Amino acid sequence: MKKVYHFLLAITCLFLTACEGRIETFGFENLKEESAHLVVKEDNKQSVLQKFNAPNAMSVDQKSWYYVYLEKEYVAFFQGKIINDILLKLTFDKEGNLVKKELIDHFLKKQVMLEYTTPIERSKKSDNYIAEIFGNIAHTASEEGRAG
User: Fold this and answer.
1) What is the DSSP track for 18-45?
2) What confidence tens digit (pLDDT) does each residue in 23-42 have?
3) What is the gyration radius of the CA atoms in the chain, in angstroms?
């Protein structure tokens, strides 16, 4: 009986240590505090690089720079949960001077949903709606067959 008790105690301790949470971070940790020191129309690309290093991402024309901070909590073997996410978007003019500064908390929750509608051509010849519905289905299926 003691062996079973010790075995169960060892398994319980193993599971309890595996359930301990851990927090992982990505990006510039003091992003919110340090971004307060950036001054629009005074700072430029060079001063931003000295304070923050290279951005996480930038626009193709390099006028917008993006700095990201993510904090993710993991518990046991489960997928992590984002507990803090901050985005700093800096916009520069042609000369490289800072003209706009945007700090967005919880930017992952503020996703923009794009609406997509497919235009359906209606036949003017037919007043039979059932024929139109099946005609549209056949038309869509034939397009998918060509694409695949």
Assistant:
1) HT--EEEEEE-TTHHHHHTT--TTT-BH
2) 888 888 888 899 999 999 99
3) 28
